[in-house]
Specification:
Layout (H helix, E strand, L loop, with lengths): L1 H29 L11 E7 L5 E4 L2 E6 L2 E7 L5 E7 L10 E2 L3 E6 L2 E6 L2 E6 L4 E4 L4 E5 L2 E5 L6 E6 L3 E7 L5 E6 L4 E7 L11 E4 L4 E11 L2 E12 L2 E12 L11 E7 L10 E8 L2 E9 L9 E7 L5 E6 L6 E7 L4 E7 L4 E7 L2 H7 L4 H18 L1 H5 L5 H13 L11 H12 L5 H4 L2 H6 L9 H20 L5 H20 L9
Parallel strand pairs: 21-25
Antiparallel strand pairs: 1-28, 2-3, 3-4, 4-5, 6-7, 7-8, 8-9, 10-11, 11-12, 12-13, 14-15, 15-16, 16-17, 18-19, 19-20, 20-21, 22-23, 23-24, 24-25, 26-27, 27-28
């Protein structure tokens, strides 16, 4: 009994120790901030299976949810208060406007005012609508009208020759009208806060059946106009997204046509180009302007994730941004709801859920407190990484071959050597051969994934060979202490190998193969 305890008990304790070390390292990874300035992603009390339409008015947001609209208010930090449910059905496909009591939306080509449970028709034959905090614009093909959001009276602003595709708003009340002159081109017109329309188009964007223009975000300051726009392109069935920029001096509004240029979006942490940027918004932070947008994730485990990015908007056509979400799913519709906080919709393939993040120091501290979900996720990650470590046994089977070949040859040619109960030179040589073999494996094993995922005590300079030496010494101590003399040379050698594999796959093995 004592012999079994020595042979099995101590190795089990070592394995349990390394499993606990892996588990607590995963807890640390889960509570790690997406970057030094932002909190972890915090789930809010909103979930729905249908993709909602979102309307924002300063720190208040409205989200469609089946046959009702959910109303939330965000206060300092990231305190999201549920104001109530409004029993109104907003048709899908178009934006809406609300002040919390009244709603304006498009339904069956009619502009509708909803108030106190009653729908009133404002206008007929409407082909499109666009809304902002204090503005509602709608159009009938090329006829653009504005709706007063206090009196709910409308007036015609301008009659364009061709159809209007969309209208976007600047923070100063100006507008950019997308005028579809034909199937291949869209001309942009500027309307100042007083309602004056530019005599000529300020720029032209190209489009096609497989190349469409998405959202526009407008920034007007110091008599300079900047437009950030997104495009969606389909090539051989695959969708790709990009961002472009148009800059114009408003003093030359009717004398100069600006040329659009593509913006290169870079991950500030790695320098890598960000793919498929979309849902772009220009937001102000003091005197500085920033881009809030989504793009493909580049972190470990982000294979199908779309992250939220935040980067400073500077002169030129390159923006460096950092990810600000810690979720691993698809993010949609990022919104800046106050000076420190952002909300977005997280989609896991089944449910849309409202999430948020903040630069507020109190929110950052609170977000790092462990929750029951964190413990469960750490346990799941530990299991997955231990399972991936078992692949080591398959890929490193050749470690055993030289020792096994030596033992078989000697057993066939000099069998009397194996008749001794004590540890003989054959056992020492076979163990030495086995211990050398992992050094041929580690250079490839310690890849980018290893250095990204492993704790610092595994990633120091020279760790690739120091770790193996430590595992060898630890295995030798357990082998020397737990080996039973009755096992013979074969049993003793394979006992060492088994211990070595156990320590290897529970210590550094989980950080070698990526199954995320």
């Amino acid at each position: 009994m004592e012999g079994k305890l020595k042979a099995v008990g101590f190795p089990i304790l070592i394995v349990v120790f390394f499993i606990f070390a892996l588990f607590f390292h995963q807890l640390q990874e889960i509570t790690k901030l997406p970057n030094e300035n932002w909190s972890r992603s915090i789930p809010q009390e909103f979930q729905t299976k249908e993709k909602p339409i979102i309307y924002q008015s300063q720190n208040e947001i409205f989200l469609t949810d089946k046959n009702q609209v959910q109303h939330y208010r965000v206060s300092d930090g990231l305190k999201v208060q549920h104001i109530g449910k409004i029993p109104v059905t907003i048709p899908r496909g178009n934006p809406f406007w609300s002040n919390g009591e009244s709603f304006v939306y498009l339904k069956n080509d009619q502009l509708i005012l909803f108030n106190k449970g009653k729908e009133t028709i404002i206008d007929d034959s409407v082909t499109g609508i666009s809304t902002s905090e204090n503005q509602v614009s709608y159009w009938k093909n090329g006829e653009l009208s504005s709706l007063n959001v206090k009196s709910f009276e409308s007036k015609v602003l301008h009659m364009f020759e061709q159809k209007i595709s969309d209208v976007s708003y600047g923070s100063d009340g100006s507008m950019i009208v997308q005028h579809a002159v034909n199937d291949l081109q869209v001309e942009l017109y500027y309307i100042d806060p007083k309602g004056e329309v530019s005599k000529n188009s300020i720029s032209t964007l190209n489009k096609s059946t497989n190349d469409n223009i998405g959202s526009l975000s407008v920034l007007t300051e110091n008599n300079q106009l900047s437009i950030i726009y997104s495009t969606k392109k389909r090539t051989q069935g695959a969708l790709s997204y990009s961002l472009g920029r148009i800059d114009l001096d408003l003093s030359k509004l009717n004398h100069l046509k600006a040329s659009p240029k593509e913006i290169t979006m870079l991950n500030k942490e790695t320098g890598s180009k960000l793919d498929s940027p979309q849902s772009v918004k220009v937001v102000k932070e003091g005197d500085e302007s920033y881009l809030l947008f989504t793009a493909e994730g580049q972190r470990i485990g982000d294979s199908n994730a779309i992250n939220v990015y935040y980067g400073k908007l500077v002169a030129g056509f390159e923006v460096k941004a950092k990810p600000i979400n810690s979720t691993k799913n698809v993010t949609n519709f990022p919104l800046k709801v106050n000076k420190d906080s952002i909300l977005w919709l997280n989609y896991d393939g089944d449910i849309y859920e409202l999430y948020g993040a903040s630069k507020d120091s109190n929110v950052i501290e609170e977000s790092q407190q462990l929750t029951s979900l964190d413990w469960k996720q750490a346990g799941y990650n530990t299991f997955l990484m231990l399972f991936s470590s078992l692949i080591t046994i398959l890929t490193s089977f050749y470690w055993v071959l030289p020792s096994l070949l030596l033992l078989i040859v000697l057993y066939m040619t000099k069998p009397n050597i194996f008749e001794k109960d004590d540890i003989n030179w054959v056992e020492y040589v076979s163990i030495t051969l086995f211990a050398i073999m992992p050094f041929t494996y580690m250079e490839k094993a310690m890849n980018h994934y290893f250095y990204s995922m492993a704790p610092s005590y595994f990633t120091f300079s020279g760790s690739s060979w120091i770790i193996l030496i430590v595992i060898t010494i630890l295995s030798a101590i357990i082998w020397k202490w737990g080996r039973n003399p009755e096992w013979g040379t074969f049993g003793g050698a394979f006992y060492f190998m088994g211990i070595y594999f156990l320590i290897y796959i529970t210590s550094i093995g989980p950080y070698i193969f990526n199954l995320y």
